[in-house]
Amino acid sequence: MTTQIFQSRFGYHPCSYETFKKLKFLNKIYYQALHSTAAWRRWKRKDPHNRIMRRKIRNEQKQVIGYEEPKPMPEPLICPIFAKKIKEKAHWDKYKYHKDGFLDDFVVLDNAVISSAYYQARMPAPTPENVVLLNIKLEDIDALYNKAVFTLKNEDLKIRSDI
User: Fold this and answer.
1) 107: Cβ contacts below 8 Å, ≥ 6 apart
2) CA dist list (Å): 42 to 33, 75, 99, 112, 150
3) Would the pTM of this model clear 0.90, i.e. be above it?
């Protein structure tokens, strides 16, 4: 928990502007992780024979005149900073119950506290007594930020601009 209070022209904030920029960056990556996790779950929900792509073939007037050969749809990438793939024992598959269970893949998200800390940092308070402190330590924010920057540089991941 941070105990320092910072003043801006809008009021009082629980963190400095540099920390706020880090939280903003991490929040963007967190929402990208939410998006990629949902894409993975949609991909996983399909049967393997339905995980295909068929691209349209168009003529000079941009009219659809056919389709290319079906190609298998690749497994969507998940964000390595906030999401991880785990194997858990499940008893229900898509169609039936398995008494002994089986191991199935799931994607889980971590650090939902980043989103709430970002929104706490955005909201100014009129007085220092009304400031709601961040629910994450500054050291944790810095460590997560450094991990995100390192991962983005080394794994050629891109930050989406439409989120």
Assistant:
1) 37, 40, 41, 78, 83, 84, 85, 86
2) 14, 10, 26, 21, 29
3) no
Kindly tell me the burial class for residue 148, based on how many C-beta atoms sit within 10 Å of its own C-beta (0-12, 13-18, 19 or more): buried
Quick check: 64 and 56 in contact, CB under 8 A? Answer: yes
Q: Give 97-146 as a 3 state SS string.
A: EEEEEEEEEEEEECCCHHHHHHHHHHCCECCHHHCCCCCCCHHHHHHHHH
Geometric angle at alpha carbon 107, from 105 and 113, rounded to 5°: 155
pLDDT per position as a tens digit, 115-137:
999 999 999 999 989 998 998 99
* Number of domains observed in the structure of the chain: 1
Secondary structure class of 64 (helix, strand, coil): strand
Residues, the chain: 163
Q: How many helices (H) and strands (E) does the chain have?
A: 3, 8
124 inside domain? yes
Which domain, by its residues, includes 39? 6-47+75-154
